Amino acid sequence: MGDGLTYRGLEPADVPAVLELLTASLAGGPTGRRSAEFFDWKHRANPFGSSPGLVAVADGGRVVGVRLFLRWEWRDGAGRTVRAVRPVDTATHPDFRGRGIFRRLTTELLEQVSGDTELVFNTPNGNSLPGYLKMGWRELGRVPVALRVARPVSFARGARAALTRRPGPSGPPRCELPSAADWLAGPDPRLAGLLAERARADAADPRLHTVRTAGYLAWRYGAAPGLDYRVATVERGGELVGVAFGRPRRRGPLAEFTLAELIVRPGDRETAGRLLRAAAASGCDHAATHLAPGTEAAAAGLRAGCLRAPRTGMVLAARTPAGPLPAGRALADWRFSLGDLEVF
Questions:
Q1: What does the pLDDT look like over 232-276, one tens digit per residue?
Q2: Domain ranges in the chain?
Q3: Does this chain's domain 5-122 share its CATH topology with 143-314?
Q4: C-alpha 123: how far from its chain's center?
Q5: Looking at the domain covering 5-122, what would its CATH class be?
Q6: Nearest to 151 by CA among 254, 262, 303
Q7: pLDDT given for residue 99 in this prediction
Q8: Where is pLDDT greater, at 216 or 165?
Q9: Which strand (E) or helix (H) includes residue 65?
Q10: Which residues span the membrane (predicted)?
Q11: Rounded CA separation 90/21 (Å)
């Protein structure tokens, strides 16, 4: 209290008002509509745990501010799980801005998770980054994005339209790849072997990375309501040697296939290249992905026609719940997939 507002934990009964507030402040989000089903998938069904959240409530019980932290887990080079949160879904009603609601919700939630969380990370845009820096976040650098143009004429036309801010087609882009939800609903028994082989190789990588289990993939790419993830696979000799997940989406006038995840056997650059080309041939104007240094995808990217795109990528910022990051922590300490950082 003190400013006429009550700050408390987000309760299930708050969800309709929170969705209304988020829609008013941030529009419909990645699916175009903020539904209770999507909220539950993102914040309740997450295999890393339910999202902690706080709301600011005015007289009469009106929700005028919300702050949620999405739980995440990284694995470090010693095989240790690093529990983390990612600040997401924050909004303050326009009538209540300028009262410090965002700062108070954020600092109280940081204090709340400090007992079970080691790291706080997110990818703020240019408007929100200064506010995070004032609250103790440190800017670690830009995570680059690589593009593979599939339809040069359409891409050039769309790029020119984007520069002049001309609107593009409406509706989802056409995509030739099959549904990830269908593929993951009847899980390929060979997937477990590929993931196990990948995990053994990744254990030797000292960088922080997400452990990609069948359960994680089913949640992240199979069960996401409205995100329409697709899958590409490569088989060799009857064995599953590679799998990739991504989704078609509109980027203004351009149709993009956002390649979020690419998993191949250790050292198998050929399969990585085939999956990159499959993403590019999905039917969109181009494919976009992050090629983490030292990975098979990065080694295959140039031969597959992927080029680092100028003026793209995401700025990574982080802190601990209690304060600044240790001085030695740097962007190179992570091995990201685009699925780790994609806003959803």
A1: 999 999 999 999 999 999 988 999 999 999 999 999 999 999 999
A2: 5-122, 143-314
A3: yes
A4: 9
A5: alpha beta
A6: 254
A7: 93
A8: 216
A9: strand 63-75
A10: none
A11: 9
Using DSSP bridges, classify how beta strands 81-92 and 286-289 pair: parallel, antiparallel or unpaired: unpaired
Q: Which fold has domain 143-314?
A: Aminopeptidase (3.40.630)
What DSSP line would sit under 73-119, residue for residue?
EEE-TTS-EEEEEEEEEEEE-GGGTTSSHHHHHHHHHHHHHTTT--E
Q: Which residue has the tokens 């001309």?
A: 166
C-alpha distances in Å from residue 174, one per residue of 184, 228, 249, 285? 21, 11, 9, 10
Looking at the DSSP bridge assignments, the partners of residue 334 are 208
Pull the structure tokens for residue 94. 């326009």
Strands 6-9 and 53-57: antiparallel
Residue 332 CB partners (closer than 8 Å, separation 6+): 207, 293
Sequential DSSP letters for 216-227: HHIIIIIS-TT-
Compute φ and ψ for 38, nearest 5 degrees: -65, -40
In residues, how long is the chain?
Answer: 344
Task: Identify the DSSP state of 28.
Answer: T
Residue 320 burial by Cβ neighbours in a 10 Å radius (0-12, 13-18, 19+): middle
Among the listed ranges 29-38, 153-162, 165-174, 316-325, which one has the minimum average pLDDT value? 165-174
pTM, rounded to two decimals = 0.93
pLDDT tens, 162-206? 888 777 777 889 999 999 999 999 878 999 999 999 999 999 999
Task: Report CA-CA distances (Å) from 48 to 31, 82, 130, 181, 341.
Answer: 22, 11, 29, 20, 15
Biggest distance spanned by C-alpha atoms of the chain:
68
The single-letter code of the amino acid at 139 is E
Q: Which helix (H) or strand (E) holds 242?
A: strand 239-251
User: Of the ranges 12-16, 39-43, 312-316, which one carries the lowest mean pLDDT score?
Assistant: 312-316
Q: How many C-beta atoms surround the C-beta of residue 212 within 10 A?
A: 20
What pLDDT does 2 receive? 60
